[in-house]
Amino acid sequence: xxxxxxxxxxxxxxxxxAVLGLLAGAWLPRHRQWAVTVLAAAACAAGLTATAVTIxxxxxxxxxxxxxxVDTATxxxxxxxxxxxxxxxxMATETVRGHPREAEFxxxxxxxxxxxxxxxxxxxxxTLFAGYLLASVPGYALAxxxxxxxxxxxxxxxxxxxxxxxxxxxxxxxxxYGAGGTTWYPGLRAALPAxxxxxxxxxxxxxxxxxxxxxxxxxxxxxxxxxxxxxxxxVAAYLTTLPKIGGLIGGFRLLQQALTGSGVDxxxxxxxxxxxxxxxxxxxxxxQTAVARLLAxxxxxxxxxxxMALAVADRSELAQRALLFYLxxxxxxxxxxxxxxxxxxxxRSLADYRGLVRRRPGLAAVLLVCLLGLVGTPPTAVxxxxxxxxxxxxxxxxxxxxxxxxxxxxxxxxYYLRWLLPVFRPPPGPPPAPGDRAEPLAASLGxxxxxxxxxxxxxxxxxxx
Length: 465
Fold this sequence. Notes:
Layout: H1 9-27, H2 34-57, E1 61-63, E2 68-70, H3 72-96, H4 102-121, H5 125-143, H6 149-180, H7 185-191, H8 197-215, H9 223-230, H10 233-239, H11 242-258, H12 266-285, H13 291-311, H14 319-343, H15 356-359, H16 361-375, H17 381-395, H18 399-423, H19 447-464
Antiparallel strand pairs: 1-2
């Protein structure tokens, strides 16, 4: 039994920093609680360093009775989550600066990121569910962090859906345990082919319910648009991005390691879910005028493309690489768009961005890169991610799904252009006077959110190069 704690160093660093941050926040004066944010950023940097060392050694292993796997998918998930968390911390710096619960904000982000990392490496149903809980509960508090009516509604909807689907997920895990006599993935893989197919199918659907909640996939997607609109922009950026990483990588490992040969036609089920998710997300985004809701429905559509890789998890050798690269590409691109939203807190509708290219040309360039990147326009990273996912779907025998995804990609251009066209139109009036807070584009948040926007856009272009 391998019980090497060093294999879990990134997760332990985040958990330790969360405990230290909570203690420090209780003693630090309000004007010095920014130190906890610095601690959180340092923990992310340390976790990235530990992950890079692990990847460089090339050693793959399972630890703690085989319940946690350290492999390529785990390493990629750690890099994406920790890098994305650094961007979220940067874009939230001015939003929470001086807030009475500034320290708690960073602690909650650390805890939910730690849970996401546990999901990426889970090699056991109970470990997967423990990661689900750790990633979810702090997220509910983050959604209602502002303590206003909109935030309260966002937190309540997020919590109710998370609690309901978490219960369904646990019930599914119990059914799979009853069918296979174990919660360990290799054990399930050996036992499930001889188990009743109906019992296995019911258990799989239950577990998928929780994973689809994290991924914002149909039919577990309803909470995301309302939560993104009601929460603070940095929290909305987190909700639409980082939970997907744990849900999708965790789901990919479950399907590939435990359900292969089970006798259940889960590839077709995942293909249908992917098709419904991308189509519904894109169609619903057509009619949005609020930027947060548009990006939330866009995130649902993007989840559909990502689920294509899960549908061919055991059919194509390209599936894992396509999923991991697409997740990295989507993370930096989506966070770049949300960083612009954070930088312009009063610009909440598409019309509020009219004339941005003249007043903030740098942010207009970021929006251009990130929104066209989400469509899948070269030379951005999402273009390569979509190309790899479509290739994996074709290689796995789902040509119809690849065609539908291509049609959805072309259709998505419409609602991204609805946002970009006002950006490049002349402003409706004369430039605002200095300090004019009534003008949406005149109220900038600060340097950290802008720096996060430029960094994310540059990363999207570099990954696509």
